[in-house]
Amino acid sequence: MSIEKVSTILKMADEANTTAIAFNCTDYNTIASVVKVAEELSKPVICMLYPEHAHLKHWTTPKIFVETVRDVAKNVKVPVGIHLDHCSDFDYIVAAMRCGFDSVMYDGSMLPVEENIKNTAEIVKVAKAIGADVEAELGRVGFASTVADQNDTDKYTKPEVAAAFCEQSGCSSVAVAIGSAHGFYKETPRLDIERLKKINAATDVPLVLHGGSGIPNDQLEVAFREGINKFNVGTEFFYLYYQTMKKFCEAGHPDFFDLPLEVQNTLENYLRQKMQLSKIRV
Ligand code: 13P
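Above: the input record for the complex with 1,3-dihydroxyacetonephosphate. Below: its predicted structure, written as tokens.
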């Protein structure tokens, strides 16, 4: 069984001066593709559940998600992490940790920083007792659909606050706002690398870059060298899944039961390209 703690995977990434890649997954097709390609390329990987996909969209449940990743990963050699993405609901996070998520994100980015610290510290206290890692967010990574979010430097992570935030909250990693945003970009993002360098110099915890769909590779390569150790990708992965199903159905394929294989093959081709961005090999 190759399930590994996310903090261990991020430490490996930090030591290799690169990033680990974390993919939002919803079901067996996404999880199996991610783990298969990670094994093929000898790279650690992290499967993340976005809570809304479970409780509002009914793709899975936290328990089924954890069991699926564990089962798919049991025969591979590479480290596979399990992580609960963006969640602000204390009870949901605790329930997820009890189901086996040994890494969770508490997202207090919409709150004043003092409250964000206080709430993150409360989650960290419970997580420590269970043996789980906690990713926090400092600054606010918004949504690419508004364009304004990615360019609003008021929402960017302030390097001068980062050290105290990490120390007082006790977080294991921190998501930083440096010009990325979630969803498809309407305008090519320009990552604030100088800010990233300052945050990295001020903190000891691994830094996380959200909004990974559509950031140009040359910018990513610099960001990974300058301190990003976890890179989150979702939108473009899901969109490819959707497009593949749509094409399959529109083509009037004779056997409906071939759909998962078609989806997995297409996702795997995409993942082979994306995972090359991480320079770790295990
Ligand atoms: P995208 O959906 O924009 O790739 O971002 C994923 C993410 O940051 C998940 O936390």
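Notes for the reader.
Strands lie at 20-24, 45-49, 80-87, 103-106, 133-138, 173-176, 207-209, 228-233.
Residues 238 and 281 are 26 Å apart (CA to CA).
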